[in-house]
Amino acid sequence: MNRLIINIFTVVFCVFFITACGYKIRGQVVLPVGIEAIHLVGASNDLSRAFEKALRFSSAALVKKATYTSVTIKIIEDRFKRRTASLTQRGKSTEFELTNLLRYEVYDWQGGVLIDQQQLSESRVYFNDQSQVIAKQNEEKIIRQEIYMALISRLLDQVSLGLLAADTPVNSTGQNGLEITPNNPVSGASVESSTE
Question: How far is CA 130 from CA 40, 96, 152, in A?
Protein backbone atom coordinates (compact mmCIF):
# COMPACT_ATOMS: atom_id res chain seq x y z
CA MET A 1 0.00 0.00 0.00
CA ASN A 2 2.82 2.39 0.92
CA ARG A 3 4.61 1.53 -2.31
CA LEU A 4 1.49 2.42 -4.33
CA ILE A 5 1.17 5.80 -2.57
CA ILE A 6 4.84 6.56 -3.25
CA ASN A 7 4.43 5.68 -6.95
CA ILE A 8 1.33 7.87 -7.28
CA PHE A 9 3.08 10.74 -5.50
CA THR A 10 6.12 10.37 -7.81
CA VAL A 11 3.95 10.47 -10.95
CA VAL A 12 2.01 13.52 -9.72
CA PHE A 13 5.25 15.29 -8.77
CA CYS A 14 6.76 14.59 -12.21
CA VAL A 15 3.65 15.93 -13.96
CA PHE A 16 3.73 19.16 -11.94
CA PHE A 17 7.50 19.50 -12.40
CA ILE A 18 7.28 19.07 -16.18
CA THR A 19 4.47 21.63 -16.53
CA ALA A 20 6.22 24.08 -14.20
CA CYS A 21 9.42 24.06 -16.24
CA GLY A 22 7.58 25.23 -19.36
CA TYR A 23 7.23 21.88 -21.11
CA LYS A 24 4.36 21.82 -23.57
CA ILE A 25 2.89 19.37 -26.06
CA ARG A 26 4.40 19.70 -29.51
CA GLY A 27 2.24 22.07 -31.50
CA GLN A 28 0.55 23.49 -28.40
CA VAL A 29 0.36 27.28 -28.45
CA VAL A 30 0.48 29.31 -25.25
CA LEU A 31 -1.18 32.71 -25.64
CA PRO A 32 -1.12 35.59 -23.16
CA VAL A 33 -4.09 36.29 -20.92
CA GLY A 34 -6.74 38.37 -22.63
CA ILE A 35 -6.36 36.86 -26.10
CA GLU A 36 -9.44 34.75 -26.63
CA ALA A 37 -9.71 35.09 -30.39
CA ILE A 38 -7.56 35.61 -33.46
CA HIS A 39 -8.95 37.25 -36.56
CA LEU A 40 -7.00 36.06 -39.61
CA VAL A 41 -7.07 38.18 -42.79
CA GLY A 42 -5.63 37.27 -46.19
CA ALA A 43 -4.57 33.73 -45.27
CA SER A 44 -4.72 30.82 -47.70
CA ASN A 45 -6.90 27.81 -46.90
CA ASP A 46 -3.81 25.77 -45.96
CA LEU A 47 -2.57 28.46 -43.57
CA SER A 48 -6.04 28.88 -42.03
CA ARG A 49 -6.26 25.13 -41.42
CA ALA A 50 -2.78 25.19 -39.87
CA PHE A 51 -3.89 28.03 -37.53
CA GLU A 52 -6.97 26.05 -36.52
CA LYS A 53 -4.78 23.04 -35.78
CA ALA A 54 -2.27 25.16 -33.81
CA LEU A 55 -5.03 26.73 -31.70
CA ARG A 56 -6.83 23.44 -31.06
CA PHE A 57 -5.30 22.99 -27.57
CA SER A 58 -5.11 26.68 -26.67
CA SER A 59 -7.61 29.02 -25.02
CA ALA A 60 -8.09 31.03 -28.23
CA ALA A 61 -10.03 30.37 -31.42
CA LEU A 62 -10.14 31.77 -34.93
CA VAL A 63 -12.99 34.23 -35.51
CA LYS A 64 -14.40 35.74 -38.70
CA LYS A 65 -14.79 39.25 -37.25
CA ALA A 66 -12.60 41.18 -34.82
CA THR A 67 -13.86 41.34 -31.24
CA TYR A 68 -12.61 43.21 -28.17
CA THR A 69 -10.69 40.12 -27.03
CA SER A 70 -9.03 39.45 -30.36
CA VAL A 71 -6.00 40.43 -32.37
CA THR A 72 -6.05 40.66 -36.15
CA ILE A 73 -3.22 39.04 -38.09
CA LYS A 74 -3.08 40.29 -41.67
CA ILE A 75 -1.13 37.99 -44.00
CA ILE A 76 0.58 40.06 -46.69
CA GLU A 77 2.60 37.30 -48.34
CA ASP A 78 2.63 33.52 -47.92
CA ARG A 79 4.92 31.92 -50.47
CA PHE A 80 6.49 28.47 -50.67
CA LYS A 81 9.62 28.02 -52.75
CA ARG A 82 11.26 24.72 -53.62
CA ARG A 83 14.81 24.51 -54.88
CA THR A 84 17.29 21.75 -55.56
CA ALA A 85 19.68 21.33 -52.63
CA SER A 86 21.94 18.67 -54.17
CA LEU A 87 22.39 16.76 -57.44
CA THR A 88 23.55 13.30 -58.48
CA GLN A 89 26.42 12.84 -60.94
CA ARG A 90 23.80 12.56 -63.69
CA GLY A 91 22.27 15.90 -62.74
CA LYS A 92 19.13 14.59 -61.01
CA SER A 93 17.91 16.16 -57.78
CA THR A 94 18.70 14.11 -54.70
CA GLU A 95 17.54 16.68 -52.14
CA PHE A 96 15.08 19.54 -52.19
CA GLU A 97 14.93 22.55 -49.90
CA LEU A 98 11.43 23.79 -49.17
CA THR A 99 11.20 27.36 -47.85
CA ASN A 100 8.20 29.38 -46.78
CA LEU A 101 8.26 33.17 -46.60
CA LEU A 102 5.54 34.72 -44.46
CA ARG A 103 5.02 38.50 -44.24
CA TYR A 104 2.39 39.83 -41.86
CA GLU A 105 1.11 42.71 -39.74
CA VAL A 106 -0.74 42.53 -36.43
CA TYR A 107 -3.50 44.87 -35.26
CA ASP A 108 -5.30 45.17 -31.94
CA TRP A 109 -9.08 44.91 -31.68
CA GLN A 110 -9.48 48.65 -32.31
CA GLY A 111 -7.49 48.50 -35.56
CA GLY A 112 -4.33 50.05 -34.13
CA VAL A 113 -1.01 48.65 -35.36
CA LEU A 114 0.39 46.27 -32.77
CA ILE A 115 3.26 44.93 -34.87
CA ASP A 116 4.50 46.60 -38.05
CA GLN A 117 5.16 44.51 -41.12
CA GLN A 118 7.41 41.57 -40.22
CA GLN A 119 8.83 38.68 -42.19
CA LEU A 120 9.45 35.11 -41.08
CA SER A 121 10.90 32.22 -43.04
CA GLU A 122 11.35 28.54 -42.35
CA SER A 123 13.17 25.88 -44.39
CA ARG A 124 13.38 22.10 -44.51
CA VAL A 125 15.57 19.86 -46.65
CA TYR A 126 14.30 16.44 -47.65
CA PHE A 127 15.61 13.52 -49.71
CA ASN A 128 14.15 13.06 -53.20
CA ASP A 129 13.76 9.35 -53.88
CA GLN A 130 13.20 9.02 -57.63
CA SER A 131 11.70 5.52 -57.24
CA GLN A 132 8.91 6.68 -54.87
CA VAL A 133 7.42 9.80 -56.43
CA ILE A 134 3.97 9.54 -54.81
CA ALA A 135 5.48 8.94 -51.36
CA LYS A 136 7.67 12.01 -51.83
CA GLN A 137 4.65 14.14 -52.77
CA ASN A 138 2.94 13.04 -49.53
CA GLU A 139 6.12 13.73 -47.59
CA GLU A 140 6.27 17.25 -49.05
CA LYS A 141 2.69 17.91 -47.87
CA ILE A 142 3.66 16.84 -44.35
CA ILE A 143 6.78 19.02 -44.48
CA ARG A 144 4.67 22.01 -45.58
CA GLN A 145 2.41 21.45 -42.57
CA GLU A 146 5.44 21.26 -40.25
CA ILE A 147 6.80 24.49 -41.70
CA TYR A 148 3.44 26.20 -41.18
CA MET A 149 3.27 25.02 -37.57
CA ALA A 150 6.79 26.30 -36.85
CA LEU A 151 6.00 29.68 -38.46
CA ILE A 152 2.70 30.01 -36.59
CA SER A 153 4.42 29.27 -33.29
CA ARG A 154 7.04 31.95 -33.97
CA LEU A 155 4.41 34.40 -35.20
CA LEU A 156 2.30 33.96 -32.06
CA ASP A 157 5.41 34.43 -29.91
CA GLN A 158 5.88 37.77 -31.70
CA VAL A 159 2.23 38.64 -31.01
CA SER A 160 2.74 37.87 -27.32
CA LEU A 161 5.80 40.12 -27.21
CA GLY A 162 3.91 42.84 -29.08
CA LEU A 163 1.10 42.69 -26.53
CA LEU A 164 3.55 42.90 -23.64
CA ALA A 165 5.22 45.91 -25.26
CA ALA A 166 1.85 47.56 -25.85
CA ASP A 167 1.03 47.28 -22.13
CA THR A 168 4.18 49.25 -21.28
CA PRO A 169 3.44 53.00 -21.05
CA VAL A 170 5.19 55.04 -23.73
CA ASN A 171 5.49 58.30 -21.76
CA SER A 172 7.78 58.73 -18.77
CA THR A 173 6.40 56.97 -15.73
CA GLY A 174 7.40 56.50 -12.18
CA GLN A 175 7.12 53.47 -9.95
CA ASN A 176 4.06 51.25 -10.43
CA GLY A 177 3.37 52.88 -13.80
CA LEU A 178 2.12 56.19 -12.34
CA GLU A 179 2.65 59.14 -14.61
CA ILE A 180 4.96 61.79 -13.20
CA THR A 181 3.58 65.29 -13.52
CA PRO A 182 4.33 68.43 -11.48
CA ASN A 183 0.92 68.07 -9.80
CA ASN A 184 1.19 64.34 -9.27
CA PRO A 185 4.70 63.37 -8.13
CA VAL A 186 5.35 59.77 -7.22
CA SER A 187 5.57 59.29 -3.47
CA GLY A 188 8.99 58.23 -2.23
CA ALA A 189 10.70 59.16 -5.51
CA SER A 190 12.71 62.22 -6.40
CA VAL A 191 11.56 64.06 -9.48
CA GLU A 192 14.24 65.90 -11.41
CA SER A 193 13.37 68.53 -13.98
CA SER A 194 15.62 69.22 -16.92
CA THR A 195 15.51 71.99 -19.48
CA GLU A 196 16.81 71.68 -23.01
Answer: 38, 12, 32
